[in-house]
Amino acid sequence: MTLSVMRRDEAVSVVWVIDPEQWPRALLRAELIERDFDAVGYLTVTDALSHLGAHFPDLIVVELRDVSRDEMAQLFEVGVPMIGSAGIPEPPWRSEFKWGALLRRPISIGEIADKVSSFL
Prior knowledge:
Layout: E1 14-18, H1 22-34, E2 38-42, H2 45-50, E3 59-63, H3 69-76, E4 82-86, E5 101-104, H4 109-119
Parallel strand pairs: 1-2, 1-3, 3-4, 4-5
């Protein structure tokens, strides 16, 4: 019996998932990893930005529930496509930014992952 060794392609897209809630973040990361993305989870925008040099993203998915306008402005300075997830009421500053996509909760993990796949 021969086992094949699976190598990760160096060009695997890095996706940051920023969400203070553990299970939604973990489930989305798991789904993205299954789809061959390098999904990295962070609790806050500050946590994510502190790792910018070590793990530069190709796309960012951010839960907007506890994010300030200033934090979003810093995140948009990274210069990659941004997918936001918001409930009602949406943050009043959401229209100030050019989103790749702005998704409204409730939304499934699969729908978010499909949107990520459509960008990368």
